[in-house]
Each structure stands twice: as C-alpha cells, then as structure tokens.
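Anyone opening a protein record will find just a pair of labelled lines. A complete record is shown below as an example.
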Amino acid sequence: MGALPVFRWRLAPDGYATRRQLRAQGLRPGGQQVAAQLERPRRRRGPLVAYLYRIELAKPVRPMTPARWAALAKANAARRICPTCRRDAGYVIPPSLGMCTPCAFPEPSQALRSA
C-alpha cells in the first residue's frame, strides 16, 4: 500500500470529502479505503488529521426501515427507564448517576426535618 496524499487544512482538491461532508450530501464511504488526509498543524502537539474519501466512489445512505425506526425507539426508551425504581424518567438518564435524579438524590423525610 502506498502512502496517502496529505493536504494542508482547507486545501484539499475537489472530489474529496470527509465522512461528515459525505453525510451532509446524503452519501457514505461505502467500504472504500481512505483516499487522502488533511493535516492542520498545532503548536505544541501533533497535527489534527481528517481522513478524506473520494466522492465519486461514495454510495447513497441506506434509508431507515420501519424495523430500524422501531429498534431505535426501543433503545432510546431503554435509556429513559430508571434501573432502581423502574419508571420512565422523562429524560435520558445520565450515565454518571446511573439512575434518575429522585433516586440518586432522595429528599430527607419529614420526620428527620422536625427532629
């Protein structure tokens, strides 16, 4: 395998795009290898690198099927269920807490306040 062509930041020729740029055009790399790379120099660290793909070899994004939509909805719903109280929290439970806010920070009972 030969070395990849390296371009300076914002100086890539037409016909190349990053994954995000392909996605914005409704395309995906489609199994092709990285065709080139962009490098953005930084002062105290190594350069930032972005990989480029050929636009003419890119394939259209696969459409979402009803089964995929259902699987995505099920996965998102699972992220909202508190493992402690088993209720829908109404929001995605933060991984740092691992449970809904009322379970993570229970309010002191009234008996402890009056004592």
Notes: The longest strand covers residues 48-54. The first helix runs from residue 19 to 24. The CA atoms of residues 18 and 52 lie 5 Å apart. The beta strands are 6-8, 16-17, 27-28, 36-40, 48-54, 59-60.
